[in-house]
Amino acid sequence: MTPTATLTAADRAAAIDRETSQFSSATRAPSAAGRWAMSARAAYQLLLYGRAVLVDIRSASERRVDGEIDPALGPVVVDAALLERRFHPRSTVRFPWVTDETRVLVLDQEGYASSPAAATLVRLGLTRATAVVGGLRAWREAGLPLAA
Question: Which label site among 3, 85, 96, 104 has the fewest CB atoms less than 10 Å from its CB?
């Protein structure tokens, strides 16, 4: 969907909801961890319209070598070892913007570590957490925006 000036904010939101409702089945696939994961393109659409938060759990060296997600999409970098502490409901270092309703999309390098990470977030009560299938590799192959 391409945003247009002729649509009201409510019309745009309704159109986005219609388009992304298909992501719950058509573009999600079972991951190795037995959880659901979302395609890079579907994740991008949610990020583009502010419907989710991307959590990048790749290491600093992976981000340095392979690049980072476009900052305009608001990616949040979290060391995988600290993921649970940053999202646990009783943690003193929990991100202040996290609620049980927050839709979190977990991105790793190739899609292997993101599934268990998303499963951890679901276990912590973030039932809308999901992994990005194929990680940054799939993101790049889909031609989605990276930092300049």
Answer: 96
